[in-house]
Amino acid sequence: LSFCTLLAPPAPNNKMAFTIKIGADLYGMKQNVLFSFARIPQLREIIDSVTHYFDIRMRSVRPAGYVDQQFRIESVQMLRDRRWVLVGADYVFDSSQQLWVFQPESIWHSD
């Protein structure tokens, strides 16, 4: 397994008031990216930013022979007390928190 940490582009106007780490699996490679927002984001804002970033990233690391497909998020989860917990729309995020996004299962990958 490979694990890397990347820094996503800063929020507009270079304001970095809130950061959150988002992990995903792309073709068996763990990716962990630090996202910056100007304020505490809502779940929809996180999903939109993460989907856009990982869609580009997924296409850039796609192995030869794999179908070009869009990055889609099926669920957002966090590890709490050694258990995966689903993150809902009403969740209030903490700065520097670690979240993981999971794609729908497919023949091209499984989380």
Short description:
The protein is 16% helix and 36% strand. It is α/β, with parallel strands linked by helices.
Model description:
This protein is of the alpha/beta class and 111 residues long. The chain has 1 helix and 6 strands. It has one helix at residues 43-60, and strands at residues 2-7, 18-26, 29-37, 75-80, 83-86, 97-102. A 6-stranded mixed β-sheet has the order 1-3-2-6-4-5, with helices on one face. The protein is globular, with a radius of gyration of 14 Å. The model has no long low-confidence stretch (mean pLDDT 85).
Characteristics:
single chain, 111 residues, alpha/beta, 6-stranded mixed β-sheet, 6 strands, globular
Characterize the largest beta sheet: strand count, sense, and whether it forms a barrel: 6 strands, mixed
Compute the number of helices.
1
- What structural class should be given to the helix and strand makeup? alpha/beta
Q: What series of H and E elements makes up the topology?
A: EEEHEEE
Instruction: Give the helix proportion (percent range).
Output: 10-25%
Rg (CA only): 14 Å
Tell me the strand percentage band: 35-45%
- 3D shape: globular
Q: Would you tell me the overall average pLDDT?
A: 85
Low-confidence parts, pLDDT < 50 over ≥5 residues? none
CA-to-CA gap between the ends? Answer: 12 Å
The tally of beta strands, per DSSP, is 6
Q: Main sheet: which strands, in order across?
A: 1-3-2-6-4-5
